[in-house]
Design a protein that fits this description.
The complex is a heterodimer of chains A (439) and B (383).
Chain A: H1 7-10, H2 20-33, H3 46-60, E1 80-81, E2 99-102, E3 109-111, H4 112-125, E4 129-132, E5 139-142, H5 146-159, E6 175-176, H6 190-200, H7 202-206, E7 216-219, H8 228-231, E8 234-240, E9 245-246, H9 248-255, H10 276-281, E10 289-291, E11 296-298, H11 308-312, E12 317-318, E13 323-329, E14 343-349, H12 358-374, H13 381-388, H14 390-397, H15 430-436
Parallel strand pairs in A: 6-7, 7-8
Antiparallel strand pairs in A: 1-2, 2-5, 4-5, 8-13, 9-12, 10-11, 13-14
Chain B: H1 32-37, E1 41-48, E2 51-56, E3 61-67, E4 72-74, H2 75-88, E5 92-95, E6 101-105, H3 111-120, H4 159-168, H5 170-173, E7 184-187, E8 201-206, H6 215-221, H7 224-229, E9 236-243, E10 246-253, H8 263-267, E11 280-285, E12 300-307, H9 314-330, H10 337-344, H11 346-352, H12 368-372
Parallel strand pairs in B: 7-8
Antiparallel strand pairs in B: 1-2, 2-3, 3-6, 5-6, 8-11, 9-10, 11-12
Classes of the chains: A alpha+beta (439), B alpha+beta (383).
Chain lengths: 439, 383
């Protein structure tokens, strides 16, 4: 017998898509039965009350959660988000319902051994409800009480070799695409770079010292499966400098219909025979391709590496061998001054595991120093860049301006010339001027 | 229930403390075929919706069966995932950045038993636990935020509208009939933890009433200067008012300047915005993050407001379904929704999707607004 009637939520049990309501119900039932006889450390009816409070929100059209309080683990300023219900008497099981962010492994690969350990811990000391995964990439453990937080952290660090993720004004948990682990497009090892930088910057991740949040995301190629260009303050997007590798026999196999275009992704409709001219050559954004009926030619220096031809004919075309990544900075969602896409700062940087990715760290650290010095409270890097100008970022990083950094040059001539750029400087003698120009 | 210690000693928090160890290293969790072929993949194919094969230089193949998942997931459900992964995949599994679950096997004969197993599992309420799909030119899982299950600022729920929308779009999760992939995202307020600003179709929670002032508590709960400074439109100023015969410090809101962002509420709990009639959904469309063919694009607001209609949000799902059908009908092969809209012109997009154009859709927020007005005589007449 359910603790609370949930007639509105119950309507989300039907339909084909997995029902989170059914899942919550099975979890509530499991806790009520407690077949293993666990000494559950938070209320046994936590999931019942979670459904109860959600039902009330469905009825009211308003949330019933209050602002977070200050909760966390000793020595960290992030990783735990306090959460309290605004109807604690009615739903005591979720009166305190704090979130813990757990730093996910690269590529979100898991062994069942690890996942079960996590489940055991969370059944025992938490609600048994998670997000797999949160928007930034963490494993989210949803709902525990204040006394359990240090206990969970202790067990996690001692028994699972596992740390928390980021929250607040710090480096948020970096995340990566599947990368070289299972993708032929990946121009660098996203998971290794992500892991390396996450380890290098543990202090920045756990102890908020930034003006606001700061996100790293790692995409192996310009397809941007983890949306780094839209969602991260610093996006690391794989690219290459040399030629796309062509297998002319495979091109013919696509033309002849032997291979399905785009890895067979359009199989749900009859689009007719593959037309390499219309589907590849004509869609090339720089028109740098030609197909003469026998051979496909690419004028590689004109290629902007949009990935379309490679995506469409993955068995015939492969990324080049001189690989690295581009760094784009300043992406963010609309709060406050409108959404921003990442802007290209470093067109190409080598990705060198052997020197611990020093060339990349040499870009990161001056940016942080500048932003921590100049950024206002709750100002994202992209907003600081807009306020102070791209030139200020160039000065901070010591990078030389290149035309790749802009879509087009400025349309106004309001250049903030610096005194040292102008011959003779700005100090002049008005009396000397007046000798030739009467008042 | 008795408190059970983990071994942590609250009197000596630094005793045996382990910190700053970061995540587990990725390669501890690779399946064997992944570990053996990392960086040496040649190509991939989608064998059928939800099933991929990646072929390596060595000749090894990894077959991936992708199943839709709820981002909100119980440990009971995770344990079931583990049971499946133990049975079919040597104890390995991964999740995608769009909350799908990927089961990988190293030979083709293992695919069908795995797929059949996944498709056979249903929740007590009748929905699939692990629907297979979400690949290629179709609709994959909706990425979303917390909503009413856990957040203090939402203007709509997340899991509820997502379930309702995915039920309506389910056929396209299982199929690949669209011109290109179509990414749907949901953020329950414009803080956009879900960053829906670059999605083909975005569902965004939005408030429409200015903050409700709790004068009695405001000065006790909040730092007034911080809350005032948080307003992007300078609609707030420190003020004084009389409460029960006593003068109290508070904040005055110039209501006509409020853009309902809720940034003040983030700084000050004594100015809530949530409201049954005021809150609802904005629909945005035409964004993308890929650099393929055209540059990444922001989503544009195409419907200014739809009401919160729990539990199934029918106005929202109907609007989305119409857009998907219009896109399926009108776009060229490989063309993303935003590329289609730009090719035919947004004036045609509104016709094709049977959407009303209202003044709310013309940008009036600062500089970027001007660049979205039409500065040419080139346009199409409405039919």
């Amino acid at each position: 017998m359910a603790k609370h009637e949930t007639p509105l939520l119950d309507q989300l049990e039907s339909g084909p898509w997995p029902s989170f309501v059914s899942d919550l119900k099975q979890e509530a039932e499991k806790r009520a039965k407690n077949e293993e006889g666990l000494e559950l450390q938070i209320p046994v009816d936590v999931v019942d009350d979670l459904m109860g409070i959600l039902e009330l929100s469905f009825k009211h059209g308003r949330t019933h959660w209050k602002h977070g309080g200050i909760v966390g683990v000793f020595g960290y300023g992030g990783g735990v988000i306090g959460r309290y219900a605004d109807q604690p008497e009615q739903f005591p099981g979720v009166a305190h319902f704090h979130t813990m962010r757990i730093n996910q492994p690269g590529g979100k690969f898991y062994t069942t051994e690890y996942l079960r350990k996590l489940c055991d811990l969370w059944d025992f000391r938490g609600s048994g409800i998670t997000n797999m995964h949160g928007s930034t990439g963490d494993i989210i453990l949803l709902g525990t009480t204040t006394p359990q937080i240090e206990e969970i952290f202790y067990e996690m660090t001692h028994n699972m070799n596992q740390d928390l993720g980021g929250s607040g004004s710090n480096l948020r948990t970096p995340s990566d695409c599947v990368g070289e682990a299972r993708c032929e497009y990946s121009c660098y090892d996203t998971q290794d770079l992500c892991f390396n930088l996450t380890q290098e910057y543990q202090d920045e991740l756990h102890r908020p010292a930034f003006p606001y949040k700061f996100k790293f995301k790692f995409d192996g190629c310009p397809n941007c499966c983890v949306a780094s260009i839209a969602r991260s303050d610093m996006a690391y997007i794989g690219t290459w400098k040399d030629d796309i590798k062509i297998d002319q026999e495979a091109v013919k196999a696509y033309v002849g219909g032997e291979f399905a275009p785009n890895g067979g992704s359009h199989a749900g409709r009859d689009w007719g025979a593959f037309d390499i001219q219309a589907e590849v050559v004509d869609l090339c954004p720089t028109k740098c391709m030609k197909y003469d009926g026998d051979k496909l030619a690419i004028n590689n220096p004109e290629c902007v590496r949009c990935m379309h031809c490679i995506n469409t004919m993955p068995r015939a075309l492969r990324i080049g061998d001189d690989r690295g990544l581009s760094i784009l900075v300043g992406a963010k969602a609309p709060i406050l001054d409108g959404a921003q896409m990442g802007s290209l700062l470093v067109p190409f940087v080598e990705v060198n595991k052997d020197d611990d990715y020093q060339a990349i760290k040499d870009v990161i650290e001056p940016i942080w120093d500048w932003w921590m010095e100049e950024g206002k409270n709750r100002e994202r890097l992209g907003e600081t860049m807009k306020r102070l100008g791209f030139q200020a970022l160039l000065e901070a990083t010591g990078l030389d301006p290149v035309p790749q950094m802009v879509q087009e040059p400025r349309t106004n001539p309001y250049i903030f010339w610096k005194e040292e750029e102008v011959e003779g400087g700005w100090t002049r003698d008005i009396d000397e001027f007046r000798k030739h120009h009467q008042r | 229930m008795a408190f059970v210690s983990s071994g942590y000693n609250p009197d000596k928090p630094m005793e045996d403390r382990i910190t700053d160890i970061g995540p587990r290293k990725y390669d501890e969790f690779y399946p064997e075929v992944i570990a053996n072929n990392k960086g040496k993949w040649l190509y991939h194919e989608i064998l059928e919706p939800g099933i991929l094969v990646h072929v390596a230089e060595s000749g090894d193949k990894v077959f991936t069966v992708r199943a839709g998942g709820c981002r909100l997931m119980s440990t009971t459900h995770i344990r079931e995932i583990c049971e499946i992964a133990d049975k079919h995949c040597d104890g390995h599994v991964r999740f995608t950045s769009r909350n799908n679950i990927e089961f990988m096997v190293d030979s083709e004969d293992k695919v069908k038993p795995l797929k059949d197993d996944l498709e056979s599992r249903k929740f007590a309420g009748g929905s699939f636990k692990f629907p297979v799909g979400g690949t290629g030119a179709g609709i994959t899982n909706i990425v979303h935020t917390q909503g009413w299950i856990h957040c203090h600022t939402p203007a709509t729920d997340a899991s509820g509208p997502v379930k309702a929308t995915m039920d309506v779009l389910f056929d396209d999760f299982k199929d690949m009939r669209l011109p290109a992939q179509l990414r749907v995202s949901l953020a329950c307020c414009l803080n956009m933890c879900g960053a829906v600003h670059c999605s083909d179709i975005a569902i965004l929670g939005y408030h429409r009433k200015p903050p409700l002032m709790d004068h009695e508590y405001l000065d006790k709960m909040c730092e007034i200067p911080l809350a005032v400074a948080a307003c992007p439109t300078a609609a707030l100023k420190p003020s004084k008012t009389e409460f029960k015969g006593q003068e109290v410090k508070t904040i005055a809101v110039k209501e006509e300047r409020c853009m309902f962002c809720g940034n003040c509420y983030t700084m000050c709990p004594s100015m809530p915005l949530a409201d049954t009639e005021g809150d609802g959904i904005v629909i945005m469309a035409g964004g993308k993050v890929s650099n393929r063919v055209s540059a990444p694009k922001f989503s544009k607001v195409v419907v200014a407001f739809l009401p919160n209609e729990a539990p199934r949000w029918p106005s929202t799902t109907e609007c989305i379904k119409n857009m998907v059908e219009a896109y399926a009908k009108g776009a060229n092969k490989y063309e993303r929704l935003g590329e289609w809209a730009e090719r035919i012109g947004w004036e045609r997009f509104f016709e094709a999707c049977e959407l009303d154009f209202t003044h709310h859709l013309i940008d009036d927020f600062r500089d970027p607004a001007y660049y979205t007005w039409r500065q040419t005589t080139q346009f199409k007449f409405s039919k």
